[in-house]
Amino acid sequence: EQIKKGDFDHFMKKEIHEQPDSLTTSMRGRLKDGVVGLGGLKDHMRTIRRSRRIIFIGCGTSYHAALAARPIMEELTDIPVTMEIASDMLDRKALIFKEDTAVFVSQSGETADTLLALEYALQHGALCVGVTNTVGSTLARKTHCGVHINAGCEIGVASTKAYTCQIVVMVMMALAIGSDKMSTLAQREAIIAGLTKLPEKVHDVLKLDGEMKALAQSLIDEQSLLMFGRGNNYATALEGALKVKEVALMHSEGMLAGEMKHGPLALVDEYLPIIVIATRDDSFSKQQSVIQQLHARKGRLIVMCSEGDASLVCPDGRSRVIEVPRVVDCLQPIINIIPMQLLAYHLTVLRGYNVDQPRNLAKSVTTQ
Ligand code: G6P
């Protein structure tokens, strides 16, 4: 086991640090001369483009990856994208039609809830697409078509490198499905250029390891941690909070910043730590106003912003700031989750819990 971990103490740490490589592998052979080629979808592309709706379905981290890719999928394809947590889709017997494309996202390809939702969608005649890390898995076999994320074997129960590779694959899917639209050509070219540079940027953000350890040290005895995000980074808030609760065994909630004034604001005081994701994109000015409102209530803030923006997001120097490299908007969630993964990792180690095998959890939940 130690040999497999290499120079790292835990699989989770190893897998976090593998991300520049896993992302490179995920993209390998799929970005040629500014065009995205996804062999697994080729024969079904006409049907996907004609679908009335795309439904993203998954559980846990895989659901969050789909949520992160949703805005760009809608923007580049002009097809409405809805989200389903697999168990909830089954509980509600959600409406699904043969004009739908149902995209099932699962690292293992064996999660019972996701596979049951797949059976359900197949029965209703939808085109079923798989996004998985496991070649030969049930998901890969039973879907009509799909894309392997090629993140490499993930052993830590908390998913890290699979999450970022899932997002990259779904961004590539959005590029491929939307590649017939002239109106978005410049945007697509910018995203492809961003994908090419992404592993290097991920390498840069991993340098925050020491800073995240120090932040973890300052949060070690807290009962609770909130994370606010919106737009492209709503998923980052949910996934960051999931990482903290599943491995560090600390209560943590990710929240849509737009909903803050509808309830969560009541929780704000000078003690409860709140991470606000305020990197540059269309939502930046709205997040600046969220920060002001939290300051006005003496909130204890930790603000994640783009490099060089510290004085903008925190003019009085009262909050802790995490500066991350800026990338094209739809890829920013990949950069932003990495400090959160590191924070969850260090919190876990400092609190003395099992990083790779958190209590009560399994890597793959194969029962309902
Ligand atoms: C379990 C794991 C999570 C994972 C979820 C979905 O709950 O503990 O880390 O996100 O299953 O797994 P999947 O293999 O379908 O992505």
Automatic annotation (TrEMBL):
The Gene Ontology biological process terms listed for this entry are: fructose 6-phosphate metabolic process; protein N-linked glycosylation; UDP-N-acetylglucosamine metabolic process
- Catalytic reaction annotation: D-fructose 6-phosphate + L-glutamine = D-glucosamine 6-phosphate + L-glutamate
Location of this fragment in the whole protein: 307 to 674 of 674
Identify this protein by name.
glutamine--fructose-6-phosphate transaminase (isomerizing)
Give this protein's Gene Ontology molecular function annotations.
Answer: carbohydrate derivative binding; glutamine-fructose-6-phosphate transaminase (isomerizing) activity
Presence of keyword Transferase: yes
At the top level, the lineage of the source is Eukaryota
| Domain SIS, first and last residues per copy | 44-184, 215-358
Q: Which residue positions does the secretion signal occupy?
A: none
Q: What is its EC number?
A: 2.6.1.16
Q: In which pathway does it act?
A: Nucleotide-sugar biosynthesis; UDP-N-acetyl-alpha-D-glucosamine biosynthesis; alpha-D-glucosamine 6-phosphate from D-fructose 6-phosphate: step 1/1
Indicate yes or no for the key word Repeat.
yes
**Which enzyme type, at the first EC level?**
transferase
Keywords in alphabetical order: Aminotransferase, Glutamine amidotransferase, Repeat, Transferase
